[in-house]
Design a protein that fits this description.
This protein is mainly β and 684 residues long. The protein contains seven helices and 31 strands.
Length: 684
Amino acid sequence: MKGKIQWVQLVRTGCIIAVCLLQLHTAKAQEEENNGNWKEQLLEQLADREESIPEDDDELMAMDQFIRHPIALNEATAAQLQLLQILHPWQINNFLLYRSAFGKLLSRYELQAIPGWDSATIRQLLPYVTLNEKAASDRPLFRRFRGGEQQVLLRSGKLFKEAKPAVFVRYRYQFKQQLQWGFTGEKDAGESFFRGAQKEGFDHTGFHLFVRRIGPLQALAIGDFQVNLGQGLIQWQSMSFAPTPVLSIKKQSEWLKPYSAAGELNYHRGIAVSAGNKHLKTGAFFSYRKVTGRTDTDSSGEFLTGFDASGYHRTVLEQQRRKNTTLMVTGAMMQYKTNHWHLGFNAVGYRTSKPFRPPPALYRKFGIEGNTWHNASIDGSATLQNFHLFWEWAVDKRMTTAFTAGTMISLSRHFNMAIHYRNFSKKYQALFSSAIAQNASPGNEEGWLLRWEWQPARNWKLQGSADIFRFPWLKYRIDAPAIGHEYLFMAIYQPSRRAELQFRYQHSLKPLNANAENVENQVIKYPGSAERRQWRWQCLWKISENFSLKQRVDYLLAGIRRAGNLQTGISAFMEATRRVGRKWMFNTRLHFFDTDTYESRIYGMERDLLYSYSMPAFAGKAIRTYALARCKWGNQKAAKRGWEVECWLKMMKQWPADLVNGSLTETGFFSSAELKIQLIGKIR
């Protein structure tokens, strides 16, 4: 036995040396991975479907926390590695098997010896993990309120034509992963502040206290929190993004998370607990709060048609609707999990002070009715070598069902794919749900989705997806059952560590009521095919370690084939980023776009303040520019106790352009300008 152990250790040492030599030989030639491509694509699709991006920055804050407190690989569990949303399920399993067989890792270069782990994944993972740092022992509860990190965030911004700026304030205290508490205050631009309709100051205030591993409880949440169950058929409140198309096909997150963002709808307020052991986990939550509801009246009285997620309370009507409905939510979950599979049971129920009633529109015929509603589901997953299967089956109060299932497969070291199927009854309804689908929430949809990624050579990466779907019942602006499809292809070429070229083609054919003159007077407008073809060319140039350029050109064709109203759109920008030491960062962009109408709009992500998203819809004809600056200074001591302050400043201007003889008209000058400023203070 002793000789066998020595032989295994000898082989292992030889593998480490070989991998290290290989790494040293190829380090200069390997490209830098651009992790934002697929996340940006998902955000653009979300904005296109829902016309907005939720105000939820918890994912960005969580990744920032992992950078400051990396996960110790030699102590990490499968659940901890899953939170990063970087590794595939089979990669996590292979890592645990490798660590079990060979013991603790000796070097980060050893990660390349794990089956299924490629260099791109490892480079993406390294900022968030370490090797030998021991997990912090759990302190008694009251001792956790000392020695943690404190952060104060102050953010304000306004369009120059508006007299009342937006204000966001947040304080957060965090002791490693054991305790987090804080409060938030927010008001939108155009709303009063300590006067008028908002004499109490902020339009939205929140508080959260979140404790992990306290006595028999795995987690305790008091105040504001989010709940994510299964694959989102009955409850999913967090934003979940993955850096690759295959990973993004499955929703992955903790079932219970603290909430400290500015959004005013997509969270719960009350108490939640979680308990269990290595295999069995149970949890329950209770929430009671006031929400803003869209209401209407008839002979029977006032009723709800839905919730308002915008958070705006500027006009008289918006102020009258503000927090006009009480919402009580209760729920529970139970999950049994092993290293290779899991099975879960979930349930959630709602009660509102005003009854829901579907509007008279025929497409809303199967909407939620009454003061109460409830959903339940069963979900599961299984991993076998390089094959991972997941699914969820849900039922609502009317006993109508929704089903979703998918599989992720690694066919080789360089080719991964995922297949997803969904079947949501036309009558299925759920609040606070979000699943992989064309619709914002599951219901009235059936479809197949394929996503794949292939790296045929060291400098090339190909990605793509195909979604074929149908709507069994009517939808908004679709007056008949219909079918559609959406395809995406992306090619990324990195000739060196300092350059990346990207080409993307997206084609969608979705049903939409035709507006041609020969069908305008019909009672039912049979859907035409709303087609969108979008080409994108993008170049990234890293001139030096501290200076980079980004160029992009988008060309779009959009319209309804039957109506014959094809429209075009073009967008082009150049962006530069300059870093000066550790303290200063500057980013600026010059952007031109020209689209026929809003139907041919082009979405694109802009750099914004830390913990913020900016995803405008570019429509019309204009020149847009912005400058973003960050100044960072502090007193970081050797003992890792000190303070740090960041100041972010963003200035944006846009001029509607009438390019006559190559110049702007006077009427189009200084049409729109926006200023944002953010201060972040940290004490460690």
